[in-house]
Amino acid sequence: MTFHRLLRLDQVHEGLKTRFRIGRHELLLVSVGTQLFLLDARCPHAGSDLGRGTLTGYQLRCPGHGQVFDLREAGRPGQPARYIVEYDGAWVGVSLD
Ligand code: FES
């Protein structure tokens, strides 16, 4: 596993919704309140870009067919895959193969 920096902690703000590509991984980092969620950016229904979705609180609406995902449910069956957010000093990142 290799740690990949995504962005600095001082760049995190409420409502952040930013997409990253690391190798074959398409990631979406979302900030709600004091929580950060790191998801697969591709919708589990048909692969639309969740980075273009609409965020309302914890609810992320897919731009493809309108399915609404609760960020707190990510990683469960039928939900976007969830990655563990990691910290390294002033950086937010993720460890990937
Ligand atoms: S691609 Fe997301 S709801 Fe269909």
Commentary on this structure:
It is a single chain. This protein has no helices and ten strands. The protein has 97 residues and is mainly β. A hairpin with a 2-residue loop joins strand 3 (25-32) and strand 4. FE2/S2 (inorganic) cluster is lined by residues 43, 45-48, 62, 64-65, 67.
**Sheet with most strands: strand arrangement:** 2-3-4-8
Order of helices and strands: EEEEEEEEEE
CATH topology name, in short, is Rieske Iron-sulfur Protein
Report the portion of residues in β strands: over 45%
Bound molecules: FE2/S2 (inorganic) cluster
Number of domains: 1
Indicate the CATH class. Mainly Beta
Q: How many strands? A: 10
Give the radius of gyration: 13 Å
Q: Characterize the main sheet.
A: 4 strands, antiparallel
How much helix is in the residues? Answer: under 10%
Q: Shape from CA axes?
A: globular
Looking at CATH, the homologous superfamily is Rieske [2Fe-2S] iron-sulphur domain
What structural class is derived from the secondary structure elements?
mainly beta
Characteristic terms for this protein:
97 residues; Rieske Iron-sulfur Protein; 4-stranded antiparallel beta sheet; 3-stranded antiparallel beta sheet
